[in-house]
Amino acid sequence: MDLPKILKQYNELCEDNDWQVFHTPKNLASAMCVSSAKILEHYQWITEEESLSLARLPNSRDKIEAGIAETFFHLLALANRSGIDLEQAVLKKALKDAEDHQGAPDA
């Protein structure tokens, strides 16, 4: 995944639509929560088994895929706007989790 390329395209879209003024960390965090809630809406009130196969249904898959992408755009923009290198943050968190759970019993 080419994060700089994705961020560049997203920033161009925002500039073309004059959205930058609204893209504060607070607004981006809020937008990320709202878009992730839209994903959750597809899984509400279905069984665990149904949830595992939902993304295989074409109509549902398109909506879930779009919601995941939208949430990711907001996350990437929030990290960028906050001066956080998302790739480095993820790697750092993965290392911390590995250290924290080293020797823990398997789940």
UniProtKB/TrEMBL annotation:
Protein name, as recorded: Rad21/Rec8-like protein C-terminal eukaryotic domain-containing protein
Gene3D superfamilies: MazG-like
Domain Rad21/Rec8-like protein C-terminal eukaryotic, chain residue ranges per copy: 47-89
PANTHER family according to UniProt: DCTP PYROPHOSPHATASE 1
Stored SUPFAM superfamilies: all-alpha NTP pyrophosphatases (SSF101386)
Annotated organism of origin: Simiduia agarivorans (strain DSM 21679 / JCM 13881 / BCRC 17597 / SA1)
Gene Ontology biological-process entries: nucleoside triphosphate catabolic process
InterPro entries in alphabetical order: dCTP_Pyrophosphatase, DCTPP, Rad21/Rec8_C_eu
GO molecular function, one term: nucleoside triphosphate diphosphatase activity
